[in-house]
Amino acid sequence: MAAIASEVPLPGDNRLGAILGDLSSKGWSWQPHMLPDALYHALRAEVLAANLQDDLAPAGIGRETDYQLDRTIRKSRIAWMDGSTPAQAGFLQWAEQLRQSLNQGLMIGLFEFEACFAVYQPGEFYDRHLDSFEGARNRVVSLVVYLNDDWPAENGGALVVWPEGADETSEPAARLLPEQAGVVFMLSETVPHAVEVTQAPRFGIAAWWRVNPSIQGHIDPLA
Ligand SMILES: O=C(O)CCC(=O)C(=O)O
Ligand SMILES: [Fe+2]
């Protein structure tokens, strides 16, 4: 199986510089139309097919060991990626190039990547949350990619991003529409965010890079 090939910005490219600068100065970065076209179309076709075939499961919240389905906090459906199609393999390669650039630029030792397709039907949402489960220090950088052809503002479904470490009373830093091939980077442990109720089916990918848990916890990193 050949992965769909694509280029990401190389170190020194303006876009990559902007992402690195945004992440270090404010903890998040919005990059309109960043996903390459061939990957966009192939991934969108897959998420549409998964949605039609009902190949998606209700999303949970909380730690994996303490998995909860709380439909008052999060209502959407997801399908984990395993890299078994050209589109998914291409996406994982694209993300791997980004991982290397982020590690070089930020010295943060991102290690593992996990990604899922996410579909929000009209009326669905995700309340304000952090992506890294408290105390676990596992997810370090979050990546969100939007797979919607058109997204008029009346559709709702905006991603609301708060400043790093903001409390419940702070004003949001941004309200981003899930526009075609747009990409969001966020520091998973410090940037609160929410998905407003959507009025139209909303397609995307939610993904995270983790640090190496054995090195983080100093448990036999060489074993
Ligand atoms: O789809 C989005 O805009 C963000 C989704 C999200 O916050 C998550 O899956 O953790
Ligand atoms: Fe999130």
From TrEMBL:
Keywords carried by this UniProt record: Dioxygenase, Iron, Metal-binding, Oxidoreductase, Vitamin C
The organism's taxonomic lineage, starting at the top: Bacteria, Pseudomonadati, Pseudomonadota, Alphaproteobacteria, Hyphomonadales
Superkingdom classification of source: Bacteria
Keyword Iron applies: yes
Gene Ontology biological-process annotations: cellular response to hypoxia
The keyword Iron is annotated on this UniProt entry: yes
Protein name: 2OG-Fe(II) oxygenase
Cofactor: L-ascorbate
